[in-house]
Design a protein that fits this description.
Number of domains: 2
Radius of gyration: 33 Å
Number of helices: 17
Structural class: mainly alpha
CATH class of the largest domain: Mainly Alpha
Distance between the termini: 53 Å
CATH topology of the largest domain: Rhopdopsin 7-helix transmembrane proteins
Helix content: over 70%
Strand content: under 5%
Largest sheet: none
CATH architecture of the largest domain: Up-down Bundle
Order of helices and strands: HHHHHHHHHHHHHHHHH
C-alpha cells in the first residue's frame, strides 16, 4: 500500500466524521451517537499516523527516533476499545449493566495504552524504522513485549467484536443483520492482519525473514477490514433513515385526498409555504391543516353513525354548497370506517383526531376509494347533503365559515 492510500483512507473517514458533526452536536447525550462519532476520528487517526511520512515527521518533531510506534499502537488500542464500546452501546440492555461494561472496557484498554508507552520507555530502539519497526525490533527487550501486547490487545477486541456481532446477527432480520455480518467479516480480516503481524514477528524469533508479510500484506488487509467494518456500521443507520423518509413521503402522498377536502373547510387552508421547504415541514403542515379541519367538524362527527343523519346536522347549514359537499365526503368516509371497525363510531372518530398519523392516512384512503370507486353513490349523497344547506340559508346570505372571503379557493390546486 502506497503512502497516498494511507491518506486517502484517513481523509474518507475524516469526511464521514464531518458529516456526523451536526448530529453529534444535536444528540450529544445519546451514547450510540457518541460511540460512532468517536470511532470515526480514531480510525482516521490510525491511517494518518501510520503513514510513513507522518511517522518520520512525528519522530523528527519529538526528537525521538521511533516515538511514532507507541503512538500508533496506542491509537490502534483506543480504536479497539471504541469498537467494543460501540457494540456494548448498540446491543443495549439495562443502563447500569451497560455502564459497568463500558467502564471495564475503558479501564482495561487504558491500562494497555499506559503499558505500551512504559515498555517503549524501558526498551532501546535507536534506529528509526518507518515500515518494519515490528520485525526489526522483534528481539529487542521490552520492545518485543510492547509489540506482542498491542497485537494481542487488538486481536482480543476484534474477536470479542466478532462474537458479539455474530450472536446478535442471529437474532435480528433485514439490513441490520447484513450490517452485523459485514462487521463480522471485517473483524475476520482484522484478525488476519493480527496474524500477519504476529507471523512476521515470530519468523524473526526463529531466525527467518518474513518481513514482507508485515510491511506489504498486513496494511492491505487492514484497509479492507476497515472499509468492510465501516460499511457494516453505516448500513443499518442509513437504511433506517431511508425507511423513515420513505414512510413519511408515503404518508404525505396518501394524505392528499383528505388534505384537499379539508381545504374547503379550514378558513386558512390556502396559506402556502416556500417551495424549498423540506418534506418534514410539508408533512407537518398538511397534518396540522387536516386536524384543524376535523376539529371544526368534531361536534357533528360525534353525534351519529349514519351518513344521512350526519348530512342534516347543523354544521352543514352555515357552509357554502361546495364546502358542504366536501364535509359530507368526510362524514361518509368516517361512517364507512366506523362500520368496518368494532365498537362505537365515536371511538373511531376519537382515534382519528387524537391518534397518530396512521388514522389520518386510513381516513384519506377511504376518501380516495369513495372518489374513485363509488363516485355515483357519493354524488347522490352530496345532493342529499347539499339541499338542507341551501334551504337553511337565506338567498344572498354569506356562508358562516367562509364569510370573510368571497369564495373558497379551488380544491384541485395543491398549494404545497
Amino acid at each position: 500500500m502506497t503512502n497516498l492510500h494511507y491518506y486517502v483512507l484517513a481523509a474518507l473517514l475524516a469526511f464521514a466524521f464531518a458529516l456526523r458533526v451536526p448530529g453529534l452536536i444535536r444528540h450529544w447525550r445519546d451514547p450510540f451517537v457518541r460511540s460512532v462519532s468517536l470511532l470515526l476520528p480514531l480510525a482516521s487517526a490510525v491511517f494518518f499516523f501510520a503513514a510513513p511520512p507522518t511517522i518520520s515527521r512525528v519522530n523528527g518533531l519529538t526528537g525521538m527516533a521511533n516515538l511514532s510506534a507507541p503512538v500508533v499502537y496506542g491509537i490502534v488500542t483506543a480504536l479497539s476499545a471504541a469498537l467494543v464500546n460501540l457494540m456494548i452501546t448498540w446491543r443495549g440492555g439495562p443502563e447500569e449493566q451497560r455502564r459497568a461494561a463500558t467502564r471495564w472496557c475503558v479501564g482495561v484498554y487504558g491500562a494497555v495504552i499506559v503499558a505500551l508507552f512504559t515498555l517503549f520507555a524501558l526498551g532501546d530502539a535507536p534506529e528509526e524504522r518507518l515500515l518494519d519497526f515490528d520485525t526489526h525490533y522483534a528481539n529487542a527487550p521490552y520492545i518485543r513485549e510492547m509489540i506482542v501486547l498491542y497485537i494481542a490487545g487488538h486481536a482480543l477486541s476484534t474477536l470479542t467484536l466478532a462474537v458479539l456481532c455474530w450472536r446478535w446477527a442471529r437474532e435480528v432480520p433485514g439490513l441490520l443483520r447484513i450490517g452485523l455480518v459485514l462487521i463480522v467479516a471485517g473483524s475476520f480480516l482484522s484478525l488476519a492482519w493480527d496474524a500477519c503481524k504476529l507471523l512476521a514477528v515470530a519468523a524473526r524469533w526463529t531466525g527467518h525473514d518474513w518481513d514482507g508479510v508485515s510491511t506489504t500484506v498486513a496494511p492491505t488487509v487492514a484497509s479492507l477490514a476497515t472499509l468492510t467494518q465501516a460499511v457494516g456500521l453505516v448500513l443499518p443507520s442509513v437504511s433506517q433513515s431511508l425507511a423513515i423518509r420513505w414512510r413519511r413521503w408515503s404518508q404525505y402522498r396518501r394524505l392528499r385526498p383528505l388534505w384537499l377536502t379539508m381545504r374547503a373547510v379550514t378558513p386558512y387552508g390556502a396559506v402556502g409555504i416556500p417551495w424549498w421547504s423540506s418534506l418534514s415541514i410539508r408533512h407537518l403542515r398538511r397534518t396540522i391543516l387536516i386536524r384543524d379541519g376535523l376539529r371544526l367538524l368534531r361536534a357533528s362527527l360525534d353525534r351519529d353513525t349514519s351518513p344521512c343523519a350526519q348530512a342534516t346536522t347543523s354544521i352543514l347549514d352555515p357552509l357554502e354548497p361546495e364546502s358542504a359537499r366536501h364535509v359530507s365526503t368526510v362524514l361518509t368516509a368516517l361512517a364507512g370506517l366506523s362500520r368496518s371497525a368494532p365498537g362505537h363510531a365515536g371511538s373511531s372518530v376519537e382515534s382519528v383526531l387524537e391518534g397518530d398519523d396512521d388514522g389520518l392516512v386510513m381516513l384519506s384512503d377511504a376518501i380516495h376509494v369513495l372518489m374513485v370507486h363509488d363516485d355515483h353513490a357519493l354524488r347522490r349523497f352530496h345532493r342529499r347533503s347539499a339541499r338542507p344547506a341551501r334551504s337553511a340559508r337565506p338567498t344572498g346570505q354569506p356562508g358562516g365559515l367562509h364569510a370573510d372571503r368571497p369564495s373558497a379557493r379551488p380544491v384541485g390546486v395543491d398549494g404545497d
